[in-house]
Task: structure prediction
Amino acid sequence: MLGREICEQLAMNGIEFTGSDREVDITDQLSIENFAKRMELEWIINCAAYTAVDLAEKEADIAERINSTGAENLGLYAEKRGAKIVHFSTDYVFDGTKREPYVETDTPNPQSVYGRTKLDGELRLMKAAARYFIIRIAWLYGPFGKNFAATMLRLFGEKDVLTVVADQTGTPTYTRTLAENIVLMVLSATDKYGIYHYTDGGVTTWHGFANEIYRLAEEAGLLKHEVEIKPIPAKDYPTPAKRPAYSVLSKDKVTSALGFAVNDWKDNLKHYFTRLDIK
Result:
């Protein structure tokens, strides 16, 4: 979902890069070495992650290898080659008990295997590499891959009534704008290393997000019938992994230090709709 978006932005900006997928096993240092040894590396952008949040409760070992060991391995390789590394983390490193936007200095307290492995990946990467940018993001969606927006559009065609959690608060992150910001950061050759928070602007709930997707789908003529979207509390939709009830992230540091552009989440969602392959 994110890797393809970043590749498109790199190409549009004339930046030479090599993309990889499953042919590179980031949990295996030798696999990384063999893949990249002949490259002139300045940056490594790691979009690989184990993101099946609920399945991670059963597959903790796999999640740990990808999210923790993988991040460490790439950090070690970046350090060996003198490269800068960009790594993406998550709002799930927090417990969601705060009621104002999380800043980078807030103490993490993950409540799920996914959150714990992502936090461990951060810590191991910071020990392995000196030139790192850890970008914590939340509620990622875009035109490539599986995500909440794509799921809602599919369910609107299958269901007459949907129930969506209304007491988990956060902000979506649109892959296009994130990718644009990452590539501009690469072009700037910045050395302001550290942990950063980034999402779109504004605040909503999953129910609010679903309603806006529905409204735009209706405007675009994508709906075959009316769908009722009922708000429910998280306790009525139990999941194996606990989600943070509040995970709004402050963008103050990323905008001031790295110059990231932050668009309102509703504006970005409108742009997402212009890119859908609508038949």
